[in-house]
């Protein structure tokens, strides 16, 4: 009986899986904004003009996907399952950087294979402190203070022995420290993960064949003090510029906004509307120059 093979032999693909896309995400004072086109291409053909490249993972986390569509959707479902199990076990959500580290560890065994996944995780960390009770059954607030729910607890402490009082006070201190650490870590976060082993944290990412053209708009338009409408306008224009120059990107644009209240999706917009707005702006500039 021959021993099992260490790894299955790779099977050549029937045709080259050339594909491209344009996805982007950046931080600003209102949270995280993510945008992507909707064209899925394969070997020079438009396989789907209305695909979804921004996938919700849980209430405060979405991921932009670039690579093979089936691989991205598959690993998104696995990551959603693992994050939900973590939340059930520990009573809180895993941070965005922790989710990126988990995804990178899951993808690492497939390095060097045909797997192609490049995801930007866009999330809001923290925010669970005022939503319920801590592990000791006491209400908590953002200042890290613990409010007892049992009116007889203080009387029990007075009747307890000095050793029991010291043990109880140390437990209370640990609970307050735990709550204070939870309350101090809150805000938007970005993490980029690739199936080749790359894992990065930053304030702005653009992934895909159209990313060089998107960066030309993002580098000059993104700043921390943007409003939600201004950030949406910058993201939409960046995707439009990329689709104008990159044949593998096009059709529509999806925009997601992640804040402390969770993620919200803007209505899908055809990029030809942005083209008409650009033509109108160009016409106004020509009129001003002619005068």
Total number of beta strands: 15
Helix content bin: 25-40%
Biggest sheet architecture: 6 strands, antiparallel
DSSP summary: helix tally: 7
> In oligomeric terms, what are we looking at?
single chain
Distance between the termini: 88 Å
Task: List unreliable stretches of 5+ residues.
Answer: 3-8, 129-154, 178-184
The helix-strand sequence is EEEEEEHHEEEHHEEEHHEEEH
Structure classification: alpha+beta
Radius of gyration: 24 Å
Strand content: 25-35%
Shape: globular
Q: Roughly what is the average pLDDT, rounded to an integer?
A: 81
Task: Give a concise summary.
With 291 residues, the chain is of the alpha+beta class. Helix content is 39%, strand content 25%.
Q: Would you write up a description of this structure?
A:
The protein contains seven helices and 15 strands. The chain has 291 residues and is an alpha+beta fold. Strands 1, 2, 12, 13, 14 and 15 form a six-stranded antiparallel sheet that branches. Strands 5-6-7-10-11 form a five-stranded antiparallel sheet, with helices on one face. Strands 3-4 form a two-stranded antiparallel sheet. Strand 8 (139-140) and strand 9 (146-147) form a beta hairpin. The longest helix is centred in the middle third of the chain and has 23 residues, at 162-184. The radius of gyration is 24 Å and the shape is globular.
Give the SSE map.
Layout: E1 23-28, E2 31-37, E3 40-42, E4 45-48, E5 54-58, E6 61-67, H1 69-90, H2 96-107, E7 117-125, E8 139-140, E9 146-147, H3 153-159, H4 162-184, E10 187-194, E11 199-201, E12 204-207, H5 211-221, H6 228-245, E13 252-259, E14 262-265, E15 269-270, H7 271-290
Antiparallel strand pairs: 1-2, 1-12, 2-13, 3-4, 5-6, 6-7, 7-10, 8-9, 10-11, 13-14, 13-15
Helix pairs in contact: 5-6
